[in-house]
Amino acid sequence: MKLISIPTKALEVEEFSSCLRQSETYRDGSAARQSYIDGSVARLHRIVRNVLACDLRYSGPSLDIASGWGILFPAVRHYIANAMPYSVAEMSGASLDYDGHEIACHRFECDKDQLPCGDSYFGLVFLNDVIEHLIVDPLWTLLEINRVTRVGGHIVLATPNAIGAFRMLLLLSGRSPATEHEIKPASIYQRHNREWTPADVESAMSCCGFKAQYFSTNAEFMSDAERSLLAVVRSQGFTELGDEFFGPELLVVGEKVEHRTISDDLPKDLRWPTWLYTSFDAYRKRPQLYPIVHDSDYA
User: Fold this and answer.
1) What domains are defined for the chain?
2) pLDDT digits (tens, 9 = 90+) for 49-96
3) Is the peptide bond before 85 cis (omega within 30 degrees of 0)?
4) Residue 206 in contact with residue 263, Cβ under 8 Å?
5) Whole-prediction pTM value?
6) Which is it for the CA torsion 40, 195, 232, 175, positive or negative?
């Protein structure tokens, strides 16, 4: 897995912000939609900037899972035009209108559903800020993404970095490094139920037929205090990993190299690896009664 190097003339946040905000959907949208887009600009800019820095040949159709009103549509159309047409997968399953373009929406509850799409259909799948919210069976979701992605196609996975150096500073100050400060008992999918390291994501992709090609933790956003702490940790021989592993958030771009699905009879160390699930075989299985019911509680 190769570190993404951001070019000197990378995509500027002001240009990216204009791309999202100049759309009719933003200008004429509800206050809630405008607020959501405004609050997402910096995060999405970092994702798209990293995706472009990989300098890969992306191709469509593309699928954006749990996209939030198809928020990436203007950016995909403008910066990754070869990945069009763009569609989304959401719990609602209701199609979207974005600047007069109808965007197909596939109903998909990540932990339990299968996508209503044919095998090997998509060339690019976005799974941005989703995997940390999954509760029961994350590899189910990745295997289902594999099924609908063609060999040679790509998955873009963004998630908070569980080993971000800022978390170490919080622990040393006696505070919790958890990123969710509100329990949200009625909206359980909005919690971060498990956070992931670069090695975790690489292993999960390997289990599910993807090769992790490029990664970034946006380490340039680390503070001087974080870098100083890592220097001390390395001087004591506790890690040989460079600063680039300990940035605040993780983006991994993977290529599908093997067709694997939830219907395959995979070895247990691939389907139910003990680093992710448990070593007790009695619990390495799907629940018969799904513990979460998606209803009006989820918002």
Assistant:
1) 2-276 (3.40.50.150)
2) 999 999 899 999 999 998 888 899 999 999 999 999 999 998 877 788
3) yes
4) no
5) 0.93
6) positive
